[in-house]
Each structure stands twice: as structure tokens, then as C-alpha cells.
Amino acid sequence: MELKKTALHDIHVKLGARMVEFAGFHMPIQYHSIREEHIRVRKTVGVFDVSHMGEIIISGPKALEMVQKITINDAAKLEIGQVQYSAMCYPDGGIVDDLLVYRFADHYMLVVNASNKDKDYQWILKNKIDDCQVIDQSDAFTQLAVQGKKAEETLQKLTDVNLAAIKFYWFVEGKLADVPMIISRTGYTGEPGFELYFANEYAEKVWNAVMEAGKEFDIEPIGLGARDSLRLEKKMCLYGNDIDETTNPIEAGLGWITKLDKGDFIGREALLKIKEEGPKRKLVAIVLEGQGFPRHGYKIFKDGNEIGHVTSGTVSPILNKGIAMGYVAKEFARVGTELEIEIRAKKVPAIIIKPPFV
């Protein structure tokens, strides 16, 4: 199968990016050093091409009812121009995907993970109610994430929209670099920043304008490698690692987006039961006290007994220590609990901390 390309593919290649297959796309994993790219975002500003993400539009008289049926957060609370972090679950409480819900005046837009887009779309169609339309518009959008402390200053040069007035998890429709787009104060790095959605035909124009505007802050293109380490330092879940169809939102620490009192939705009965009985395990944040690189699937021990496994891990470029997320049996999930992670047949001491790591 031929890999899909974003509208910025040729720019990434020209910049010498290391390109890899990801979610059916040919994507840049790094341009030079993942560590340097990570630090650039934490210090000033970086730009990610995240056009591989999926955008699914739900419209019609019953659009809200449809969104409420398939997502676990309460979309009825959204005002026009507001964004919500949410998830979709299977009837057993397992997670279909985590996503963002955008509320427009006459429709909703679900922004879903690239690797799940086709599966999500089919799931939504399977559960569709009458009097609403569902359209996959993923291929129509270029999406840029401009992230870091200098993101606002960079982008403000290119627009008359007052970016400072856009609150966290809100968006506006306006022009930036003379291109009509959605300007959203969201992101996956834990830094201040924006995500920009616009038509593919303007991709190179917007990219070049943003790179030029951010020159004084040493703006750099950032690949998927640093995107992963940045989100991990802030304990943001990654589908396929920390959450999937075998995990539920309660044990994953996503109880705060699980609105069991909003009325019926897919998975509600199972999640009510899990909440009442208490989850058997919990997703925790772990810092290594010894040397090592904790990786997905590594076993976690307490007093010689296996109690869980690592779901995501890296060596934090900011802390210069191994950090990880992992599921452990609930009796060992308390902050301050000392445990060990098995790395290459050696048990490395570690401790559970209160997230985020950075």
C-alpha cells in the first residue's frame, strides 16, 4: 500500500527530515536531534505538521444528540467556539479513541488520532442516529501545531485576530497569513500554543510565513519523536500505548472527562460499574532513580513481585532521568511508592510521583 503524504511532505524532505511510516502516512520523525527539538519547544517555539490527524464533521438537527451518544464527556456544556477533550468507548468501557470535540454554530468537528481515523469513522457510522450527517473531512485539512512560550508572539505577527483573547481550549475562525482558518488554543506538548486548520492548497504559504515570523525566536520544525517525549513529560496519554480497547477511562486517570451523570452514552453502564467497584489497576507516573531507558512493555515490580507494566517511557530531555507511565495494581498506585522497572534483565529502582513530570 502506498503511503499517504501531507501537503508539506516535500518541505520535510527538502529540510532533510528522517521520514518514517506512521498511521499510513510518510511523516517526519526528526529533523536533527529529538532532544534538541524537544528543548526548542520547551524554551521558545516549534512547528509540527500534524495533518495526518483525522477530522470528522457531525451536523444536522440531532448532531448534539449524536455526539452525546458516542462520547463520554458532556458536549451539551460546550459553547460555540469551545473545544473539549473527550473519548469514545465500547459497550464494555474499553476506549475506542481519545479525541477533541469542536463546537461550531451549526456542526461539531471531532479531531481523532491518525492511527484510529478509519476505525473511528466506521464506529461513528455504525452508531449513527437519524437526522444527523457524518462526513470524514480528514483529507481536506492541513493542520499545524505551533507550540511553545513564543508561539503567540510568533503568530500574532501574521493575524489581526487578538490571539491573547483566545482562552485555553477555545478557537476562532479568522485569517492568518491571509489564509482563512481555524485558530485553536490547544496542543499536545503542555506548552502554550495553537493548532491551525486550513485548506491544503495554502500549506506551504502558511508554513513559510510561520517559519519567517518565528525566526527571531529560533523557531524550528519539530518531528513526531519530540512530540512523543513532550507529551510524556506532561503525562498526556497516547492511544495504542497508555490507552486502548483493553483499558477504560477510570483506570487511565480520565475520570475527569467521564460524565456519568449526563445521560446515556455508549459504555456508560460498564463505566458506572467500574467506578462503583473501583478499578483494579491505575495508570501512574514513574521516575527512575537509577540509570536506564524505560520502554513500552517493560515489567514493573514491587518487592520482587510483578505488579504491572510500562506503557510509555523515555529519558526526559529536561530532567535527564528516565520517566515512564504504566499500569500498576491499585494497592501500589500511591504517590511515593518505591518500585522497580526491569530493564535488560536488571531491576532499576523507581518511584511513583504526582504528575506532570515537568
Automatic annotation (TrEMBL):
<dbReference type="InterPro" id="IPR006222">
    <property type="entry name" value="GCVT_N"/>
</dbReference>
<dbReference type="GO" id="GO:0008483">
    <property type="term" value="F:transaminase activity"/>
</dbReference>
<dbReference type="Pfam" id="PF08669">
    <property type="entry name" value="GCV_T_C"/>
</dbReference>
<dbReference type="InterPro" id="IPR027266">
    <property type="entry name" value="TrmE/GcvT-like"/>
</dbReference>
<dbReference type="GO" id="GO:0004047">
    <property type="term" value="F:aminomethyltransferase activity"/>
</dbReference>
<dbReference type="GO" id="GO:0005960">
    <property type="term" value="C:glycine cleavage complex"/>
</dbReference>
<keyword id="KW-0808">Transferase</keyword>
<dbReference type="InterPro" id="IPR006223">
    <property type="entry name" value="GcvT"/>
</dbReference>
<feature type="binding site">
    <location>
        <position position="195"/>
    </location>
    <ligand>
        <name>substrate</name>
    </ligand>
</feature>
<dbReference type="GO" id="GO:0005829">
    <property type="term" value="C:cytosol"/>
</dbReference>
<comment type="function">
    <text>The glycine cleavage system catalyzes the degradation of glycine.</text>
</comment>
<dbReference type="GO" id="GO:0019464">
    <property type="term" value="P:glycine decarboxylation via glycine cleavage system"/>
</dbReference>
<dbReference type="InterPro" id="IPR013977">
    <property type="entry name" value="GcvT_C"/>
</dbReference>
<protein>
    <recommendedName>
        <fullName>Aminomethyltransferase</fullName>
        <ecNumber>2.1.2.10</ecNumber>
    </recommendedName>
</protein>
<dbReference type="InterPro" id="IPR028896">
    <property type="entry name" value="GcvT/YgfZ/DmdA"/>
</dbReference>
<dbReference type="InterPro" id="IPR022903">
    <property type="entry name" value="GcvT_bac"/>
</dbReference>
<feature type="domain" description="Aminomethyltransferase C-terminal">
    <location>
        <begin position="281"/>
        <end position="358"/>
    </location>
</feature>
<keyword id="KW-0032">Aminotransferase</keyword>
<dbReference type="GO" id="GO:0008168">
    <property type="term" value="F:methyltransferase activity"/>
</dbReference>
<feature type="domain" description="GCVT N-terminal">
    <location>
        <begin position="8"/>
        <end position="262"/>
    </location>
</feature>
<comment type="similarity">
    <text>Belongs to the GcvT family.</text>
</comment>
<dbReference type="GO" id="GO:0032259">
    <property type="term" value="P:methylation"/>
</dbReference>
<dbReference type="InterPro" id="IPR029043">
    <property type="entry name" value="GcvT/YgfZ_C"/>
</dbReference>
<dbReference type="Pfam" id="PF01571">
    <property type="entry name" value="GCV_T"/>
</dbReference>
<keyword id="KW-0489">Methyltransferase</keyword>
<comment type="subunit">
    <text>The glycine cleavage system is composed of four proteins: P, T, L and H.</text>
</comment>
